[in-house]
Amino acid sequence: MDYMFEKGWVIKPAGGVTGEAFLASHNNEKLFIKRNSSPFLAVLSAEGIVPKLVWTKRLENGDVITAQQWIKGRKLEPEDMNCDRVAKLLNKIHRSKPLLSMMRRLGKSPVYPESLLNYAETHLDNELKKNPTIQKAYDYLKTNISMMKPIDWAVCHGDMNHNNWMLTDQDELYLIDWETAIIGDPAFDIGPLLYWYVPESEWDNWLEIYGLTMTDKERTRLKWYAYYQTLISIQFFKNLGREEDSLYWLEILDEIK
Q: Which percentage of the chain shows pLDDT scores above 70?
């Protein structure tokens, strides 16, 4: 980002797991800068799902730098995830034809549950596989794979962590960090969100606002994806050497019933 330094911009890390996000400031102007952000950021911006995209620049080394409007606000707290606005925004995302069309134009193919199961099998290390809680979750994935044929395809964000939801000082809700987005079953997002954040007694209300009716089959799908996403989170943080975070997600896994 030398070209920005040359123009007098001050660049500071903006945090995050990847270390690819920055705050750029010059006089009274601030921008959120990210290296190699999601290639369909422009559509997300046009749909009002992420803060406004200001510009995109490809560097000589092939990296793509994007600049978005810097927003003042806060990340949602875990208890905020049960609000109507989260359900409505997620519904908007899953029903968005422009998002789905763009993903397909980028060459993305639907991700089937069988591929996810294979990914879990090959990426969970042997130490984790020996853990009884992980064994139970992995057995559930294998046992119920035949019931997981997708009913519909949608663009799924892929990481429902509450830190990815932003509420601005102007009361605008955004879902950020789209690097893990896939074309998949909407339950890929809904399952983890419900199991991680919403009391089970309130699921029916949340799903009604989203636009889905709970059935035994739907519950199996939601639980399957909640198990999968939590397993992958455990391995992800273990790979980073963040043992405390890995143990946290192991506790979450144990609470999924």
A: 94
CATH 3.90.1200.10 fits 74-255, yes or no: yes
| 106, two tokens | 């980028």
Token output for 247: 């143990």
232, 123 Cβ separation under 8 angstroms: yes
Looking at domain 2-70, its CATH architecture is: 2-Layer Sandwich (3.30)
How far, in Å, CA of 249 to CA of 232, rounded? 9
The answer to whether 243 touches 234, Cβ cutoff 8 Å, is no
**What separation in angstroms does the CA of 48 have from each of 45, 167, 213?**
5, 13, 26
pLDDT tens-digit profile of 169-198? 999 999 998 989 999 999 999 999 999 999
Rg for the chain, CA atoms, rounded: 19
Active site residues: 159
Would you say the pTM of this structure is higher than 0.85?
Answer: yes
Local structure of residue 69 (DSSP, 8 states): E
Query: pLDDT tens across 97-129, in order?
Result: 999 999 999 999 999 999 999 999 999 999 999
**Residue 196: which of 229, 245, 157 has the closest Cα?**
229
Give the phi and the psi of residue 49 in degrees, each rounded to 5: -90, -30
Pairing of strands 165-168, 64-69: unpaired
* DSSP bridge pairs for 231: none
Q: Which sequence spans correspond to the domains of the chain?
A: 2-70, 74-255
Alpha helices in 54-202 (DSSP H): 84-94, 97-105, 113-123, 126-129, 132-143, 187-197
Report residue 167: phi and psi, to 5°: -115, 120
Which backbone phi and psi does 216 adopt, to 5 degrees?
-60, -40
